[in-house]
Amino acid sequence: MRPDPVVEFWLGMGAIAAALAVALLLAFPPAWMDHRIGAVANFGNVSFLGEGSSVSGDGYVWGTVTKIEPVKGHYRVHMKLKPGLELAANQGLALEQANPLQPAYLTVVRQCKAVPGVALQAGCCPERLSAASPEGAERGLASCGRIPNLIDQAKDIGTVAKTRIDDIGKTVSALNAKLGPLMDKASATLDTSKATMTSAGITSARAQALLANDNVANLSKVLASTQATMDRVKTTSATIDDLLQNKKEQLDASITNLSNVLATTAATMPGVVDNLQKSAEDLRAITGQIRQEPTSLVRRRERSDPSFVDPAPEK
Amino acid sequence: MRRGLVLLAFLAAGCGSLPAERSIRIDLPAPPAARPLSGDGLTLRMLRFTASGPLQERNLVYAEAGAPDDTRQAATIVWEAPPEVAASAYLAAALTGAGASVIGNGIPGVPNYVVSGVVQRFDLLGGATGTAIASLDVSISDAKSGQAWLTASYCAKAVTADRSLPAVQRAFQAAMAEIAAHLVADTAARHGGAAIAAPVPRGSRLSSC
User: For chain B, what are the domain ranges?
Assistant: First the structure.
């Protein structure tokens, strides 16, 4: 018996509608079908993290980021996670971007003991753990910042170098500031000693004059010798004073110049790093061109022997 | 039949191959009878001369008679040493022969003066036979102060006796000998305290260089 075509048509249409409904449910499951758990964590930097970014732990993808909302001074990252993800007290989520050309993701890391001078180990928190307050039905998950990628590390090296050069510049400036008054004091002391010597010389001269009248020849000679010695000391003192005065200006100028050079170097360091990167890229491009066009770099010169010289004998 | 074709191909390749290179050289000058630079403690350091363009290469540079400005490089005629090396070696030998102490480039020693130079021309101009042309700028400077002590440009020509390569070689040799003689004379005059009036340029037949 042949089925009724009308019934057959509506049965077909019903099958198509049912398939569409199932597909829609699978693609956009309603809240009552979504068994994932809502969670929230706080981050200070969410560069390259977006809605749909994965949340993983121990090599297993637990869920995705659903929303990122800026709150005062930081970002609250909302996510949907499969049941079963439990964070220990020393664990938290960190933002990681292993490949600078791909989006970032959240990963479960643990708090490690930081050793100064040693690079961050894989799977360790880059910063301190910070708990997030739960929001409605969403769990609050601890977070610990952003794991530095290759670009961040390169920037850090430049920043550290710049900071160290700045420190040297500051030290030199401080030294300059301290050395100035010290030199002034030394100069003043020498002035005082010079004045004392002059006054002693005058006294000696007076005594010598008095004694000369009394014809105490020996004593007069001794005093004359003393005065000559004092004069020499006075001259030496004046010479040292002059030298220090001269050196002070030179020293000041040298230290100021050194400070300026260091400050300039510190200011140009980031530019130098950038230029190095650009040069490397240019070199790579040039290398590529050379590989593609080897003959364009080879200069060829057409050669032939002069007509007015005997030709080479044929072999 | 196939063997015959292969043999023919080899023969054709053999016929088309370039002739072998023929080298020419500038022989160092024989020590002269007079030694005008001896006994004065004149110590010179000879730096390697410089050249530009095709003169940096060993192939002989020449121009045909009809196109004197169209410089070319010979295909098979090559210098044993590039002109810049040959010229500085020749002048070093000439100065040594004249009695000066010449320290070669790279050899330890403390000279009074440093000799440097530029090869401007070292080419063969065509005609019935060839004409060898050598033109050099030479500068001798004080080793301590770096100030110029003698600066001169020399140019000399010599016609080749025939079309053979030995004749070409002898012509260049003659041109270099003429330049060396002028350099030795100028150095002796300068070292003796005489002022050299406008030593730029020197050499015979300068007008056509």
Answer: 4-11+20-208
Neighbours of A105 (CB within 10 A): 22
| Alpha helices (H) in B58-200, listed in sequence order | 83-97, 165-191
Asked if pLDDT for residue A97 goes beyond 70, the answer is yes
Residue A164: φ, ψ to 5°: -65, -40
Sign of the C-alpha dihedral computed for residues A187, A190, A196 and A197 taken in this order: negative
Quickly count: other Cβ atoms within 10 Å of residue A77's Cβ: 26
CB–CB of A134/A40 below 8 Å? yes
Mean pLDDT for the stretch of residues B107-116: 92
Judging contacts by C-beta atoms under 8 Å, the chain A residues touching residue B126 are 306-308
CA-wise closest residue to B166 among B26, B71, B63, B31: B26
Looking at per-residue confidence, does B42 or B106 come out higher?
Answer: B42
Contacting residues of A for B74, CB less than 8 Å apart:
303-306, 309
Global pTM reads 0.43
Size of interface A-B (CB pairs under 8 A): 56
- Give the residue on A whose Cα is nearest the Cα of B20: A312
CA dist A9 → A4, A14, B77 (Å): 9, 9, 97
Reported ipTM: the value is 0.77
Closest CA to A187 of A256, A233, A237: A237
Span A263-285, pLDDT tens digits: 776 666 666 666 666 666 666 66
Domain B4-11+20-208 architecture: 3-Layer(aba) Sandwich (3.40)
- Say if the Cβ atoms of B76 and A306 lie within 8 Å: no
The owner of tokens 């040039």 is: A286
Only one residue has tokens 């609050």, namely A140
Chain A interface, best mutation among B55, B59, B62, by max A CB count within 10 A: B62
Give the minimum alpha-carbon distance from B38 to chain A in angstroms, rounded to a whole number. 41
Report whether A148 contacts A104 (CB < 8 A): no
Task: Give residue A105's identity as a one-letter amino acid code.
Answer: Y
Which residue in chain A has the smallest CA separation from B63? Answer: A306
Q: How confident is the model at residue B167 (pLDDT cuts 50, 70, 90)?
A: very high
Mutate one of A305, A307, A310, A315 to test the B interface: name it (highest B CB count within 10 A). A305
Distance CA A112, CA A32 (A): 40
